[in-house]
Amino acid sequence: MATPILVVDDSVMSRKLVIKALPPEWDVEITQAGNGQEALDSYRSGKAHVMFLDLTMPVMDGYEVLETLKREGLNAFVIVISADVQPKAQERVKELGAIAFLKKPVKTEEVKQVLREYGILT
Amino acid sequence: MKLQSLTADQTDTLQEIVNIAMGQAGDSLARVLDCFVNLSVPRIKLIEVAQISTHMAKLVKSDMPITAVRQSFYDDLSGEAITLFSTDGYHDLSELMGYQNDLDPNTEKEVLFDVSNILVGACLNGIAEQLNANLSFSAPSLIAENTTASALLTPESLPWDYALQVEVNFSLEKRNFMSHLIIMMAEDAVDSLKRSLDAFLEAV
Fold first, then answer.
1. Do A11 and B22 touch (CB under 8 A)?
2. What is the mean pLDDT of chain B?
3. CA separation for the pair B157, B141 (Å, rounded)
4. How many separate domains does chain B show?
5. CB of B87 within 8 A of CB of B146?
6. Which of B10, B37, B127, B140 is close enough to B26 for a disulfide, judged by CB 3.0 to 4.6 Å?
7. How close A53 comes to chain B (CA, Å)?
8. In whole angstroms, what is the distance from residue A5 CA to residue A3 CA?
9. Do A86 and B30 lie within an 8 Å CB cutoff?
């Protein structure tokens, strides 16, 4: 069965780049969200077993999404994909429950490695 | 001749490219200051140089005193990069850079030039790298001290009718310091920028 995944970024281009970097052999059903609020809506309707999350976004940013998920009992694998590459940003998202922090532009090999590490992709 | 604006796809691509570049700039600044840097979403628009004061005034609160450093860039992309500093946040900056007392005007200038070099260098190199473009920079120069944003640039100070304005903001957590980096892309450079963006888009 296809894994429901959610790609969250305010930039359409950036979402395309993320989707293009997904391992081709991974059977997924992709939903996209343009900000944190949309992301939470999709997450709550069960569309995010794995979430690829940008940090800098209008309306609601990635940190707020992570905080909300943590408060409500996180039930998704969140992989942060960000242009903000400060070590402190990486620390913060890990503390908030993200399983990985990948730098933009993201590479297929890096995505694969994380998915394998967590047994999402075998 | 009126300049053709960027298409929605080109704007989105440029925004994402700037986003990645400013992330690198923020990271460089964070390492130098040992402090977390908050980044904004980059804003991009085509402006008429005749309206430059109005555009600049919209960037920062009108009554806020600012100091500005300017660096030109040229080669495949050309234009002016202007780094605005809030004057009242400036003390935070010199403190974070390890200076303890009030600085003499020369050292003060050096600190501003250092930060400008970090932001402009990382940001523009980041953009150029992603677009496979070559870029060179002039040395920074102080163009204004303790002035308001609207008084910063006059239409005469930029030799074009139109410019593509890219704006990113950096601020420090728990500190007053904030900085705006404004990149004005020359109108002649916009066409080659569009071609580079199209090439990037095609590769996706």
1. no
2. 88
3. 14
4. 1
5. yes
6. B37
7. 15
8. 6
9. yes
